[in-house]
Design a protein that fits this description.
The chain has helices at residues 18-40, 49-62, 73-82, 102-105, 107-170. By secondary structure, it is an all-alpha fold. α1 (18-40) packs across α2 (49-62). The longest helix has 64 residues, at 107-170. The termini are far apart.
């Protein structure tokens, strides 16, 4: 049980003034007093409305809530869970209002994706032209000229490999051999 001096776990209050903690201590004492009165079944009629409210809360917390479920509640829920899902009701839809297939409706998204990739490529090219010289100088200073050459060679190999893989998939070759 927390006492007013313990404070909140993980909270450090070494410089807190005594008068700033006093309302908390009074509040805690009122809560504890109400809890004790309910536990001991003693009711000292206090004129303070806060004490009465705390007593009502403490009394409510001492007893489990009344839940009035029907006796066969679990069986009802089980029947509902096991019941087959009803078939959808067919609704006549006019010919012009029928939804299109996903491949047809995805055409706009495909075009938008291509446009966004093109814009990204142009931005990357522009950034390379603007910042390329300073980045190249910083890379040379960090890993040396030979390290930059090997890094460019590795990037070229990866780019070619990925490009050939993309072309192979685009041509319809998925890597499986015919039987």
């Amino acid at each position: 049980m927390n006492t007013p001096d313990q404070g909140t776990p993980g909270q450090d209050t070494p410089g807190m003034a005594r008068d700033a903690r006093e309302p908390e201590a009074q509040e805690w004492a009122a809560q504890e007093r109400a809890r004790q009165q309910v536990r001991d079944a003693t009711s000292t009629a206090s004129p303070d409305a806060a004490d009465a409210a705390y007593r009502r809360i403490a009394a409510a917390l001492r007893h489990p809530p009344r839940v009035e479920l029907p006796v066969d509640f679990a069986a009802r829920v089980a029947r509902i869970a096991e019941a087959p899902v009803p078939a959808p009701i067919p609704v006549p839809v006019p010919e012009g209002m029928r939804p299109r297939l996903l491949s047809q409706s995805g055409a706009f998204e495909q075009a938008l994706l291509r446009a966004l990739v093109a814009v990204f490529a142009l931005c990357a090219l522009a950034a390379g032209l603007v910042y390329g010289a300073s980045v190249s100088a910083q890379l040379q200073a960090a890993i040396g000229v030979q390290g930059v050459e090997w890094t460019v060679l590795l990037a070229g190999c990866l780019g070619l490999s990925w490009s050939f893989e993309w072309l192979r998939r685009r041509a319809g070759h998925d890597g499986t051999r015919p039987a």
